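User: Hello! I'm new to structural biology and keep hearing that structure can be predicted from sequence alone. Could you demonstrate with GCN5-related N-acetyltransferase? Please show me the input and the output so I can see what each looks like.

Assistant: Of course. The first part below is the input, the amino acid sequence of GCN5-related N-acetyltransferase. The second part is the output, the predicted structure written as tokens.
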Amino acid sequence: MKIIIKEYENKDLKEMMDIWNNIVDEGIAFPNDKSLNLESASEFFSSQTYTGVAIDNSEVVGLYILHPNNVGRCGHIANSSYAVKQGQRGKSIGKKLVKHSLEIAKQKGFRLLQFNAVVASNEVALHLYKKLGFKQLGIIPGGFLSKDNEYLDIIPHYIEL
């Protein structure tokens, strides 16, 4: 498996949309509760500071979005979300996406990367972020409403770039 991470192209949109929507439909990680269609996916992914895709043998196997976490005097803090295709998880694709996003965030002039809502039950992500040097900012009790209408804790994280 030779993963290449690069900026997305319009030809990648359908696969990106499918990966994104799968995670939204799972209802256990992303705050989004509505699926994308091709038009809204194009608008959403193109509006980011950077949207990267992980490609393996011409197949999109993962993606990330990078954008400011806030505006104005807090605009130097980035935020990012990651998605790995079902059936491709556990192959270190997420780790490669996170590392790539850290490089791009720095290139784009961000000074920190912050995750606002890492769901406490997402043990794989929590382990990865710790391993990569992210710092936890505490716990927000019941900050995430799962698809099953259960309120789960979220754990914000950050890393200095």
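User: So the tokens describe the shape?

Assistant: Right, they're a compact way of writing down the 3D structure. Reading them back into a model, for example: Residues 4-160 form a domain with the Aminopeptidase fold (CATH 3.40.630.30).
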